[in-house]
């Protein structure tokens, strides 16, 4: 039986990681990836429910498959992930030809369900328990973390990998569907995380990005011993071959001093914190049930800057949340100006059925107002990005080279060899420079000569090699790119 797999993924890093795991487990069963959905024997969508737009995208993709599935009923179509958990009945109703529905806490069942679907079993589903359907321990057990052995060929970069340290979320921000679909917060055992990181290092991975919905709330208790993120970072820091450690996404209230000191003291930890503020208005923060005030956030930011002076801080904002007045919004603008974030992800509020926000408040900000506020906040943030980037001109930064830049990939297809490579600084800024593929996976000094709001442009430093110095290859093998 032919085994061609097509998979499309939307959503956050957690979903990227889930897809990597699903693909790896299917490869073990002999599946090969294809980019051609019409040539696939199995078509999977790994879905997101965080905003309506993410769901619409998947329904459109499913709609485009309808004819093909009618003509080729043997093609297996599966819907995985957060939307599967949230909307199983609706999916079967809107796309009755879907063969399997698998929630994010049941992904380990995917290969088996596919096998059964190919044997003719129809309309299967594997879902976790809802948050009010059973006692907590039972719900927790129904959300299983899916972290099988890592397959290096499955990552978009062989040098970087996400490592899950936590599943679920217990914060219940009123706008957010994640706690319903991803279940209760649960930390993974530190020993498992360490073992996985060692495997990744042996596979040539240089950078590890620890992921959790509120990653800095991480806690694992066993035999009376409790492990926090700061301690986990100390453990992972000793893994040979790993050069950089990052963690996303942080919750403002859980940014404890021990964590900040760990980042400052451990050279492999990136001085980078993605810690969403969401709104600059106390009234809106309270409606969102974020659990902090603007002043609390300011204090947290002050501690970050005191303990980790070089830190870059990134944020998320929601504009047009229920009841957001122009004055509330202007407070978000003021906070973006005050906090000088490295970057901010800005989202228009999208009401999610099943959240407290949908139940309690009217989605009363018109779409065009949301759109205007989104553009305005983005413009303010972009101006700050450019100003912050100007400070890098003439400076030399250490860049972990990830691969060809996106534009270089496009050009390469059009007119010949690659020239532009892209990577990131320790504090997560994107750097593009002239180079070649052999530099990927290495950390190189790059001097910055130009900047846009989201990218620094530079040249690899070559002049450090005086004749009196031994020729130290900048870890790029002989015939390196600088020549
Ligand atoms: N766990 C992370 C990210 C959650 S989802 C955290 O807590 O920071 C990523 C972002 O999507 C959130 O930070 C928020 O800004 C946005 N978001 C979540 N629900 C949303 C909704 N209903 N409408 C618009 N944006 C939303
Ligand atoms: Fe959603 Fe809030 Fe949890 Fe983040 S902390 S995943 S925004 S409920
Ligand atoms: Fe979306 Fe689920 Fe992530 S809802 S943002 S894919 S946790």
**Cofactors and ligands:** S-adenosyl-L-homocysteine, iron/sulfur cluster, FE3-S4 cluster
Structural class: alpha/beta
Helix content class: 25-40%
Whole-angstrom Rg: 23 Å
The fourth-level CATH homologous superfamily of the largest domain is tm_1862 like domain
pLDDT averaged residue by residue = 93
Low-confidence stretches: 465-483
Q: What share of the residues does DSSP label as strand, in percent?
A: 15-25%
| Total beta strand runs | 21
CATH class of the largest domain: Alpha Beta
How many domains? The number is 3
Second rung of CATH, namely the architecture of the largest domain: Alpha-Beta Horseshoe
Q: What oligomerization state is this entry in?
A: single chain
Going across the major beta sheet, what is the strand order?
A: 2-1-3-4-5-6
Terminus-to-terminus distance: 50 Å
Number of helices: 16
Named CATH topology of the largest domain: pyruvate-formate lyase- activating enzyme
Shape: globular
Q: Main sheet, how many strands, which sense, barrel?
A: 6 strands, parallel
Molecular structure report:
With 483 residues, the chain is α/β, with parallel strands linked by helices. The chain has 3 domains: 3-137, 3-Layer(aba) Sandwich (Rossmann fold); 140-318, tm_1862 like domain (pyruvate-formate lyase- activating enzyme, Alpha-Beta Horseshoe), CATH 3.80.30.20; 396-475, OB fold (Dihydrolipoamide Acetyltransferase, E2P), CATH 2.40.50. The chain is built from 16 helices and 21 strands. The chain has helices spanning 13-28, 52-71, 82-86, 88-94, 110-118, 136-142, 178-182, 190-202, 229-237, 257-265, 282-288, 294-307, 326-339, 356-360, 367-390, 406-415; strands spanning 4-9, 32-33, 42-47, 76-81, 100-102, 124-126, 160-164, 166-167, 186-187, 207-211, 219-222, 225-228, 244-248, 272-274, 312-319, 344-348, 396-404, 420-424, 430-434, 443-451, 455-460. It has a 6-stranded parallel β-sheet with strand order 2-1-3-4-5-6, with helices on both faces. The chain has a 5-stranded mixed beta barrel with strand order 17-18-19-21-20. α9 packs parallel to α10 (257-265) and α13 (326-339) runs parallel beside α15 (367-390). The structure holds S-adenosyl-L-homocysteine, iron/sulfur cluster and FE3-S4 cluster. The site of FE3-S4 cluster has 13 residues, from α1 and α7.
């Amino acid at each position: 039986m032919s085994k061609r797999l097509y998979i499309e993924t939307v959503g956050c890093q957690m979903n990227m990681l889930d897809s990597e795991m699903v693909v790896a487990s299917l490869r073990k069963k002999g599946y090969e990836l294809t980019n051609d959905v019409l040539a696939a024997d199995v078509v999977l969508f790994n879905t997101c429910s965080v905003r309506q737009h993410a769901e619409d995208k998947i329904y459109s993709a499913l709609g485009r498959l309808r004819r093909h599935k009618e003509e080729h009923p043997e093609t297996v179509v599966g819907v995985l992930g957060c939307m599967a958990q949230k909307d199983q009945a609706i999916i079967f109703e809107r796309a009755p030809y879907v063969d399997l529905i698998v929630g994010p806490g049941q992904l380990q069942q995917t290969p088996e369900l596919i096998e059964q679907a190919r044997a003719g079993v129809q309309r299967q589903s594997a879902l976790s328990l809802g948050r009010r359907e059973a006692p907590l321990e039972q719900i927790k057990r129904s959300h299983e973390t899916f972290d099988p052995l890592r397959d290096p060929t499955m990552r978009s970069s062989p040098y970087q990998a996400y490592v899950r340290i936590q599943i679920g979320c217990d914060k219940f921000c009123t706008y957010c569907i994640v706690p319903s679909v991803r279940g209760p917060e649960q930390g993974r055992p530190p020993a498992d995380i360490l073992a996985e990181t060692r495997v990744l290092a042996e596979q040539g991975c240089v950078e590890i990005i620890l992921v959790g919905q509120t990653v800095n709330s991480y806690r694992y208790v066993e035999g009376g011993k409790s492990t926090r993120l700061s301690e986990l970072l100390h453990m992972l820091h000793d893994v040979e071959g790993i050069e950089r450690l990052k963690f996303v996404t942080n919750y403002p209230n859980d940014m404890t001093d021990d964590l900040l000191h760990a980042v400052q003291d451990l050279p492999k930890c990136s001085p980078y914190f993605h810690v969403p503020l969401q709104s600059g208005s106390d009234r809106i923060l309270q409606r969102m049930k974020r659990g902090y005030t603007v002043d609390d956030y300011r204090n947290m930011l002050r501690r970050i800057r005191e303990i980790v002076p070089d830190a870059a801080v990134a944020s998320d904002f929601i504009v047009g949340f229920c009841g957001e007045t122009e004055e509330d919004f202007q407070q978000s603008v003021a906070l973006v100006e005050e906090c000088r974030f490295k970057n901010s992800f800005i989202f228009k509020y999208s009401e999610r059925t099943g959240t407290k926000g949908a139940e309690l408040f009217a989605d009363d900000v018109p779409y065009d107002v949301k759109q205007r506020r989104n553009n305005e906040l983005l413009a303010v943030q972009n101006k700050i990005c450019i100003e912050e980037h100007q400070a890098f001109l003439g400076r030399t930064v250490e860049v972990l080279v990830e691969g060809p830049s996106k534009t270089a990939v496009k050009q390469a297809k059009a007119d010949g060899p690659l020239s532009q490579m892209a990577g990131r600084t320790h504090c997560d800024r994107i750097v593009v420079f002239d180079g070649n593929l052999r530099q990927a996976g290495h950390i190189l000094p790059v001097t910055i000569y130009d900047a846009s709001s989201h990218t620094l442009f530079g040249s690899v430093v070559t002049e450090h090699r005086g004749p009196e110095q031994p020729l130290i290859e900048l870890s790029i093998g002989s015939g390196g790119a600088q020549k």
